[in-house]
Specification:
single chain; 45 residues; mainly alpha; 2 helices
């Protein structure tokens, strides 16, 4: 693999990591409202 390809692969991995971290952060911020409503939707009780 050439250095350019290595840099491209590392950049893609970094983008996916940043998106995953941002998703977790948004999930924690919305946990008080979002997750309870999701659990209420999927729980039959």
């Amino acid at each position: 693999m050439r250095s350019g390809q290595v840099r491209r692969v590392l950049g893609i991995i970094l983008v996916f990591l940043l998106m995953a971290i941002a998703g977790l952060a948004l999930g924690r911020i919305l946990a008080g409202e979002g997750y309870t409503s999701v659990y209420e939707l999927f729980s039959p009780i």
